Amino acid sequence: LGASAGEQRIVLAEGAEARHAYEQTLDEWRVLTAVALAGLARVALDIGVQYVKDRKQFGVQLGSFQTIQHRLADLHTATDGARILGYQAAWAVDVDHPAASAQAAQAFWFCGRTAEDASSASLHYHGGYGFMLEYDIQLFARRAKGWRLQAGDPRLELRRIARRRWLSDGPKGGAEGAPAAAREGMDFGFDPDTVAFQQEVRAFLDEHLDHDIIDRALTTGTMHDWGLHRKLCQRGYLAAGWPTEVGGLGRSAVATTTLMQELYRAAAPVDGMGIAAMVGATLLLCGNEEHKQEVLPRILAGDVLCCLGYSEPDAGSDVAAVQTRAARDGNEWVINGQKMFTTMAQEAEYVFLLTRTNLDAPKHKGLTMFLVPMSTPGIEITPVETLGGERTNITFYTDVRVPDSCRVGDIDAGWTVMHAALVYERNSSNWGEPAHFVAAVADWAATADGEGHRPLDDPGAQERLAQWDTLIEVGRLLLYRSAWMAATGALPQVEGSMAKLWLTEAFVAASSDLLDLVGPEALAPPSGGTMVLGDLVEHAFRHAMVTTIYGGSSEVQREIIAQRGLGLPRVR
Questions:
Q1: N or C: fewer beta carbons within 10 Å in the chain?
Q2: Alpha carbons within 13 A on the beta-carbon side of 205
Q3: Phi-psi region for residue 59, left (φ > 0), alpha (ψ -120 to 50) or beta?
């Protein structure tokens, strides 16, 4: 329908042109409905959250129960993800992005699922009142289901995603890495400088990362390669997000997030780099002149690694419960205790050691940080093998004597020192690895065997792959939302926790489900000659499980989201 000189005229199309116009119209409808469903989900969730804040049972607020908080935290994360996914699909359709059709289907499916989940949970938390017609929440539950079914069975939408992502219905690929469109308004593309940086990092990895490096890391369990590490440091990547005036590259949070995701996606063994960057930033901000003049330059050059001495047998997520004791003896300190999960201790020259120095102060205020040379007498390293194949360590400290110059920051200020590096830290949630995993399984499924059969022709396989591809994309958007906030001067509160929670939980579920899809051949040892996708699928299944633990367990992330993000009361 066109307009010219005040007149309206109908333009008819036939054949492929008509089909394209019809599909484009449906995609626009999907996007608009998806955003409406995301809005429905948010309001339904808000109603439920307010109800559990107001309603008391057993003498306390309903919202103080941990099980309720955790489910609402999951829904809060999903609802934020649905909104961003819907907006990205709208942007993609608006700029005629090659992946627009696939993203429209992804947004419609996921926003619909989230609307159903949010309204159903809110209805449930209303108890019997939710089933009374005078309460609005029952309308949300009915409308979420009704709006979603306008396009038919939601499983058909998953198949549509698969066809548009990997089969013949449309171009392959997503919006990740897409350059910005030259128009005003919302923009989900990278700026040209970030695109160029991303291409630079990919070219670096093509030149310096090979299968031997990856295989050696997986075989030894040490996720570090000295040659690669030094080349990364020579490029300035270790301090990519630091200001130029302190020796960094001055890259934005979006660019540094992109750097880490490219490293993760390529399976680069960079555990040492991440720890070195964290310790280096802390020394820059809190270290003494000896640290800054002698240790920091060696860290930045890639000549020195550090390990973290935080966790203990009884101090995992509750880091402040550490009992490793540092007692003052003149101008020295005597350290005794034990640390768990001291990853990279076998390669590190220093341990960044959190100790208790004041037994009378509150546990967060009686801590002091030290940078201790690993060669100091009294330090013992015991290797620990893990399910995911990575090596970690238990470290023991028996009458370890260090000068006061090893102290980082003020006495009893270790908690503040430990968090100082957040000034330069960029969200390091791992999207690259699960995204590469799902893409690799999709490529396998789309490849025909010797008899011309391919798993992706099975509607069940299409649904599985489309679901995980969509959920991992939601995680990418949550990750970059946090990075974008930091890049624009905002202070992310719970956004990093949302990204970490979503991506790790999705990775665990996807690795298990897609292992089922690939089948027992994925479990064969490499020497058997029949292993599918190398050991990628089997290793992902083992490795994904630990990602929900390190960096703050999923339960800790849910508490942060529920209490800081939704304002629910503390439960402990």
A1: C
A2: 21
A3: left
**169, two tokens:** 């219905």
Burial class (CB in 10 A: 0-12, 13-18, 19+), 420: buried
560: left (phi over 0), alpha (psi -120 to 50) or beta: alpha
Angle at 510 between CA 507 and CA 516, to 5 degrees: 145
Q: Where are the alpha helices (DSSP H) in 61-126?
A: 66-94, 100-125
Looking at the chain, the number of H-run helices and the number of E-run strands are: 18, 12
Gap between the Cα atoms of 126 and 316, Å rounded: 36
pLDDT attached to residue 9:
59
Biggest alpha carbon distance in the chain?
93
DSSP 8-state class, residue 294: I
Name the nearest CA neighbour of 92 among 150, 30, 147, 149: 30
Q: For residue 507, give both structure tokens.
A: 């990775």
Spatial separation of the C-alpha atoms in residues 410 and 105, rounded to whole Å: 55
pLDDT, residue 317, reads: 81
pLDDT at 298 over 90: yes
Whether 28 is catalytic is no
State the pTM of this model: 0.93
Instruction: Report which listed range, 169-178, 440-449, 462-471, is most confident.
Output: 462-471
Give the Cα separation of 290 and 278 in Å (integer): 18
